[in-house]
Amino acid sequence: MNVLILGSGAREHTMAWKLSQSPQNPTLFVAPGNAGTASLATNLPLSVTDFGGIAQAVHQNNIELVLVGPEDPLVLGISDYFAADPQLANVPVIGPNKTAAQLEGSKQYAKEFLIRHGIPTAAYAAFTADTLAEGQAFLTTLKAPYVLKADGLAAGKGVLILSDLAEAQSALAEMLVDQKFGAASQTVVIEEFLSGIELSCFVLTDGHSYKVLPTAKDYKRIGEGDTGLNTGGMGAISPVPFADEAFMDKVHQRVVIPTVEGLKKDGITYVGFIFIGLIKVGDDPMVIEYNVRMGDPETEVVLPRIKTDLLTLLHATGQGTLHEVALEIDTRTATTVMAVAGGYPEAYEKGHPITGIDQVKEALVFQAGTAQKGDQVCTNGGRVLAVTAFGADYRQALAESYRGLSHISFQDMYFRKDLGFDL
Length: 423
Ligand code: AMP
Ligand code: GLY
Known about the structure:
Blueprint: E1 2-7, H1 10-20, E2 27-32, E3 42-43, H2 51-60, E4 65-68, H3 72-75, H4 78-84, E5 93-94, H5 98-105, H6 107-116, E6 124-128, H7 132-140, E7 146-150, E8 159-162, H8 165-176, E9 187-191, E10 197-205, E11 210-218, E12 221-223, E13 227-230, E14 235-238, H9 245-265, E15 272-281, E16 284-291, H10 299-302, H11 310-319, E17 333-341, E18 364-367, E19 370-373, E20 376-379, E21 383-391, H12 394-405, E22 413-414
Parallel strand pairs: 1-2, 1-4, 2-3, 4-5
Antiparallel strand pairs: 6-9, 7-8, 7-9, 10-11, 10-15, 11-14, 12-13, 14-17, 15-16, 17-21, 17-22, 18-21, 19-20
Helix pairs in contact: 5-6, 7-8
The chain binds adenosine monophosphate and glycine (GLY).
C-alpha cells in the first residue's frame, strides 16, 4: 500500500518509522518531511496546505491512504477537499473534516461541545470586540489567575494566564480590539482557572468505534522546573504514572465515551485521532482542550508503545472497521527528550551540522527540524530531534534517552535535563 504522511516534524518521522515496520511493507511518502523521513520514505516538496499539489501527488504516486500530522490542513478542510473530489473520495484521509476540526480550530466551539455533552471542563464565557465591556466586567466576577484564550489557531501562543485583574482586562482589550493574535483573537474565551497536573489522552476513531491509546505527559516550557517560555514540547513520558486504573476509568466514562458519542449526536463522522488535553483536579479529570491530531512530542512515546501494526489500525480507521482490530500495548515506559537549537523558542540559527546520530544504539532518534546537505544532516528548525527510549519505569527510560543524547551534538544544542521532575 502507498501511504502519504503530511508534516515535517519528529511526529511524522515517528509515524513513518512505525509504518515502515508494518509486515504489509507499505511504500511511504512524506510531504514535506525532513532528513529523518528521507531515510524511510520519499519526501515530496509540498506544503501541507497545498491541497492541489497534494491531490496531484496522490494521483502520481497511487497513494491509497493519507495520514495528516499537523492541524492546519485539517482546520482548512483537507478531508472535505478529498471527499468532494470524485477522483480522491476513495482515498481515506486519517484526520477529521473541517467541522470537527473546529474542536481544535475554535476554543469557543470546543467549549460549546464540552458543555453540550456534559463533559467536565472549566466554566467559561466568550467575548468579541462588541462585548469588550461585558468581558471586562466578567473578569471582576472571577478569582485570579485569569485564563484568556484566543479562539482561533495561534501556534500555541494564544493562551494567557495572568494574576492581576487590571492586566487581564487590558490584555482582553489588546486581544479583541488590537487583534494581538490577529483574526485568531477576534473572539476570546475567558475561563475559570483549574489547578492540577496535566496529561494527555489519545483516541483513534473511525466514527463508529474507537481505541484509547496510551496516555502521555509532555513538558512544554523551555526551562527546567517548567519555567520560561512555552515551546512546541521539550519531551514526553508514556504512560503517565499518576493516571492509574481508577483515574483512567473516570477519563473513559466521563470524557472519552461522551466525546465519541457527542460527535455522533452532532452528526459528525470523525475519522482520525482525538488528542484530549486533561488536567487532574483532585482525583477528577477535566478537559482543557481538544486537538484533532496526535501530539508532538507525545507521538514519539505513544506510537513506539503500540504493538499492533499501525497500518492495520489506520486502514481499518479509513474503512470504518476499527472494531475488528485488537490494540496491543507495550507495558514498558517510553520517554523522549527533545534537543533544540540554542535560543529556541525565540530567535535561533539553522544550518549547523549534527553529529553522532548513527552512534545512538540504546535509543531511537526521531528527527524534527533537520535537512540533508550533501551527506551531512544539519539543523533546520527550533526543535531539532527527539530521542526516545524504553525502560521498566520512567527513570530507567529517561536514563537511556539521555545516554542516547550524549552521542549527539550540534552547535548550541540544548535539552531539558529534568523531565519527570514533577512525577
Ligand atoms: P490550551 O491551548 O487550551 O491547551 O492551553 C494552553 C495551556 O494553558 C494548557 O496546557 C494549560 O497549561 C494552561 N491552561 C489552559 N486552560 C487552563 C485553565 N482553565 N486552568 C489552568 N490552566 C489552563
Ligand atoms: N505537545 C502538544 C501538542 O502537540 O499540541
